[in-house]
């Protein structure tokens, strides 16, 4: 998968990545993930638009992100949102 850093927010300690290429783009027209880091916690937000109605929700990617965060000893939360035209909020 090829991703692009789309936004860095120093004040909120967050970074947003957007998928550009790869197998994930066969399932989703758009796919963005934001990670926000605080003292002892990580919040992941995934926003996506399905390529077809048959495409699954990206739960697998979200679960992976949460498990990675736990590996660093952080509490973590996940928000998965569907999108029309992407207007990403952190």
What does this structure look like?
With 90 residues, the chain is of the alpha+beta class. The chain has a single domain (2-82), classed as Alpha-D-Glucose-1,6-Bisphosphate, Chain A, domain 4 (2-Layer Sandwich), CATH 3.30.530. The protein has 2 helices and 5 strands. It has a 5-stranded mixed beta sheet with strand order 1-2-3-4-5. Strand 3 and strand 4 (41-50) form a beta hairpin. The longest helix has 13 residues, at 59-71. Mean pLDDT is 86; it is low at 85-90. This is Bet v I/Major latex protein domain-containing protein. InterPro entries: Bet_v_I/MLP, MLP-like_ligand-binding, START-like_dom_sf. It comes from Escallonia herrerae. Residues 1-77 form the Bet v I/Major latex protein domain.
């Amino acid at each position: 998968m090829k991703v692009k850093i789309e936004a860095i927010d120093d004040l909120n300690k967050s970074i947003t990545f957007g998928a550009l290429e790869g197998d994930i783009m066969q399932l989703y027209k758009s796919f963005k993930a934001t990670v926000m880091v605080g003292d002892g916690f990580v919040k992941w937000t995934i926003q996506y638009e399905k390529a077809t109605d048959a495409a699954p929700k990206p739960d697998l990617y979200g679960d992976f992100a949460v498990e990675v965060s736990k590996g660093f000893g952080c509490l973590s939360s996940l928000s998965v949102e569907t999108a029309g035209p992407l207007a990403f909020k952190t």
